[in-house]
Amino acid sequence: MGYLVEDQRKVTTHRLIQMKQEGKKIAMLTSYDYTTAQIVDNAGMDVILVGDSASNVMAGNVTTLPMTLDQMIYHATAVVRATKRALVVCDMPFGTYQVNPTEGVTNAIKIMQSSSCDALKLEGGVEIIDTVRKILDAGIPVMGHLGLTPQSINKFGTYTVRAKEEAEANKLISDAHALEDAGCFAIVLEKIPASLAARVTAELKIPVIGIGAGGACDGQVLVVTDMLGMSQGFSPKFLRRYADLHSIMTEAIGNYITDVKSCDFPNENEQY
Ligand code: KIV
Questions:
Q1: Looking at ligand 1, which residue's alpha carbon is closest to its atom 8?
Q2: Distances from the Cα of 15 to the Cαs of 51, 84, 179, 206, in angstroms?
Q3: Domain residue spans in the chain?
Q4: Minimal CB count within 10 Å: which of 36, 50, 101, 183?
Q5: Could you count the other beta carbons within 10 Å of the beta carbon of residue 38?
Q6: Residues with pLDDT less than 70, the chain
Q7: Does 101 contact ligand 1 (Cβ within 6 A)?
Q8: What is the pLDDT, as a whole number, of residue 110?
Q9: Are 168 and 152 in contact (CB under 8 A)?
Q10: What pLDDT, on a 0 to 100 scale, did the predictor assign at position 232?
């Protein structure tokens, strides 16, 4: 049972829009497996993102590009099984929605049917707007994602802050409006100047969830393994570590090794 929120009703896209109207911040965190999602949901998370960052933090890839449709479905299915309250959003992986709207909606339906997740997230603005519309027309809620969109990392060539220049900032603003006009229920803004994110947040009626986009956004999202301090060597300015699980786990595992080797484990009470 959640101990941080009183309202135990299942979170819906409609509720998130209400939260923005009421000035209530939205908490979103990634999860990729049953056990973690159960903890995240019980803690009272509003939105769980089955991010294609699974490619990096679960599979050890350098980018998110290798993630496949079936792999995302595997992760999303496990997360949905664990989740009672949070809205579960699944990333559409690279290559499953960029070719054309028909292929996009076919793949979107496959993820929804196979995993029973609540919504999908797609990276991009006007260039994918026909696909976004078609997916929405199929009755599937869509969350947009602008700014540093990791599936385009090879085009950007760098993980630096996006939309610092006027032209890119103006495109981001019109992309955000296009996604809202198409019917998206929320958008993620990743690694852009806080002032730009504040402007988009003020202009849109749908919630804006930031990651490295400042405090004015309607909500925040982080990667669960990063904020729990499990991953090492990834320390962007926006990342706040809420625990040092890397040290805790290393010590616990080291103690287990010592106990096995010294014949301390199992003891008489730990056997049949
Ligand atoms: O895949 C992911 O984890 C994401 C978040 C960083 C927003 O898209």
A1: 51
A2: 21, 15, 19, 11
A3: 13-241, 244-272
A4: 183
A5: 17
A6: 1-4
A7: no
A8: 98
A9: no
A10: 83
Q: How far is the CA of 123 from the centre of ligand 1 (A)?
A: 10
Please identify every residue annotated as catalytic: 190
Q: State which H helix or E strand residue 259 sits in.
A: helix 245-261
Q: Token digits for 209?
A: 């969830």
pLDDT for 6 equals 75
* Per-residue model confidence (pLDDT) at position 4: 62
Position 187: which residue type? I
Q: Which atom of ligand 1 is nearest to the CA of 53?
A: 1
pTM for the predicted model, two decimal places: 0.97
Q: Is the link from the previous residue into 266 a cis peptide, with omega within 30 of 0?
A: yes
Q: Which of 200, 94, 182 is nearest to 143 (CA)?
A: 182
Q: What's the confidence (pLDDT) of residue 1?
A: 46
State residue 5's pLDDT score: 74
Task: Please tell me the class of the 13-241 domain.
Answer: alpha beta
The C-alpha angle with vertex 68 and arms to 63 and 69, in degrees rounded to 5, equals 135
What span, in angstroms and rounded, lies between the C-alpha atoms of 160 and 128? Answer: 23
